[in-house]
Design a protein that fits this description.
By secondary structure, the protein is mostly beta strands. Helices cover about 5% and strands about 35% of the residues. The chain is globular and about 50 Å long.
Length: about 260
Amino acid sequence: MKTDETVTRTLLLSRKTGGKLLVSRGSDENIDLSAVDVNTGQSQIRIFEASKAKQDYSAGTTLGWGLRNAVGLAENPKDGGIWSAENSADNIERDGFEIHENNPAEEINYHGKLDDPKSPLLNKNFGYPLCYGVWNVSEIPSAGTLEIGQQFAIAESNATKQDSFCNTDREPPRLVFQPHTSPLDLKFDSKAENLYVSLHGSWYVRRFFNLSLLTYPDKSLTPQTGIVTTPSVIPSRPSNSDPTDNPSKKPQVQTL
């Protein structure tokens, strides 16, 4: 279960479905092509029986895959729905052009409920490493009809032709927000009235972001429709930012 690129693991012990332990494992490099094979166990969230010892990662049930680095995991205390926050890739190119400053988007994804063995979201692929969330459409070559929140391909040739595959054969995010803001954790309050998302920020882009906390009203997180409204931004602690940058800069979030 060792990886060189993303070395942390996120664990979530379900309170709604007794004895279920979720383990999130990231990629072995920025764009890890081995993750196209579900059997590698890369870039996935798997379900385990918490009571069993000495389990290999490959023995777990795949909840979701194609998730570059789903660091944040949360269970809705009201209905048991599982949500994840995905840190997307750096150094993205398309058709030979660098588009990494404002693409791809960071994502929040929905995985259904653990107590539903027939959930249509069980074992769904969320795109990585072939497909990525759109943030700034204007900077994507040959974007065509792509819209924010959809997924685009980065294949070395004929990327545009693969966009339809990304948007029909891969599960879309429920929410996208500004690239490189690095969502590290998700937490529902005890009444499931709000979901809180912590953003770490990144050194990778020219414009730095403050450490921030976003909150989403429960009614805006509707798995059946995928509707998400713009969150509140809780005042953030200034980061070690470029002195020419605006220290009050807040991460932006898009409604899908």
